[in-house]
Amino acid sequence: MEALHVSDGELSILRKRVSGFQMLATIPNRGVVSFFLSFSLCYVVIALYLRSKCYRDPSSLFFRPESARVLTYSSFRKAQARKYADLAALHTPTKWVANSTATEFCIGISSVSRHGFSYLKETLGSVLEGLDDLERQRIYLVVFLAHTDQSQHEDFNQPWLLNVADNLPTYPDDPETLELVRQLEASGDYEAHARKQKIDYTVLLSECARVDAKYTMTLEDDVIALDGWYHRALGALHTAARKTRELGRDSFLYLRIFYDGRLLGWNSEEWPLYVELSMAVLIIEVLILMTLRWRVVMMRKTLTIPVVFLLCGVCTPMLIGLFFAAGRNCMLPKKPGVHLMHKYGCCAQGLIFPQHQVLDHLLPLYGETHDTHAAVDTFLEDWANNRDNLRWAVTPVLIQHVGGKSSHGAGDQEMGSLTDDMPFDYSFEMNDPIKLAKEHQAWVAEMLRRDPAVGGQPL
């Protein structure tokens, strides 16, 4: 058998490795290694838990769009909406009654043909399905098929639409306006859409101005409303009015009932703040540990310099990184209630305006402008920013955006399927239809209990 020859260099390396293992075998270092291994195991468990919890947050590293964008509750409401509309085609349901009840909402919906595809039936059905007669009688529903030739719209002259809408207006019988709209329809580009959209909103708001409603709600024609939106909206409006007074202001511009969940994550313009807060956590941690080590004699053996370095230089940065990786909406979700939302409030899927705002500002604003550079939502936000108007939003949202086929050509998808660039609220799909129905029924019962003769006053 050949003798094993080991060079001096190899022998030196072996001695260093043996020395390293002996160092790890010492009691202090063995404790550090054991702690780090235990921490790593806990870290993995926490990461797996966050992976299962935060997959609906688009700002999360664990975001799974194929699962998060599944229309669970929306599909349930769509089925209810279609059933309601099909029945409405056969028998006219309860509608707004002029001069018999106090009109709470005028709801205005403008709808444009999507070339063979329409969401309007499901949108209107979800808004009306489940409403108590007392609630429906307080709603004036305006549906505007925004074409100079309304027969171009898929739902034109449909029996269900004729039976559910309180008003189906057309463009004003003004040759100049009609010719302008025809030109904008023929163009079809973004600037034409931006200009025409303001004309369409003027038609809607003018019709709403004819009734003495407390609030005007504008909805896009590709949204789904949850069961009980009516009483939640009223409660949020009363809260917004109270908070407005607490701020020393007389009025607010609108209450937002939908916002895009994708825009409420870790925003790039706020990264300096995130870095400052992370550094502050590390500094505070170092100060606490070093104070304990200095003041408490018994802690000096435990809080050695290697241990302090491991905690502050490795473990805490790993936890901070996991916190940000999990996503803002998952780790710091908005509390239920009414909040100011002057930024990141996309888009115009659902807004509720006090009626005086419609009469004093919106109608003149949309009617007189010739702006072609911004759609209604951007145009309104710019105007509100210049005037420092208060804009509130309700959490959780009351409607969901389900449109995947744009009315002006942007982001069209076959059969209207959802895409990642469409506004979407990921928490909406977690609604429990049974709980919502019970909540709604309880509110109606309370309203009747207050005044059985007329249904009581809104809570």
Put the structure in a nutshell.
The protein has about 450 residues and is of the alpha/beta class. It has helices at about 10-25, 25-55, 65-70, 75-90, 120-130, 135, 160-165, 175-185, 190-210, 230-245, 270-295, 305-325, 330, 355-370, 375-385, 435-450; strands spanning about 105-110, 140-145, 215-220, 225, 255, 335-340, 350-355, 390-395, 400.
Characterization of this structure:
By secondary structure, this protein is α/β, with parallel strands linked by helices. The chain is 51% helix and 9% strand. The protein has two domains: 18-53 and 266-326, no CATH class; 74-254 and 351-386 and 405-411 and 422-450, no CATH class. The chain has helices spanning 8-25, 27-53, 65-68, 73-90, 120-128, 133-136, 159-164, 175-187, 190-209, 229-246, 271-295, 305-326, 328-331, 355-368, 376-387, 433-450; strands at residues 105-111, 139-145, 215-219, 223-225, 254-256, 337-340, 350-354, 391-395, 399-401. The strands form two sheets. The chain has a seven-stranded mixed β-sheet with strand order 2-1-3-7-5-8-6, sandwiched between helices. Strands 4-9 form a two-stranded antiparallel sheet. The N and C termini lie far apart (97 Å).
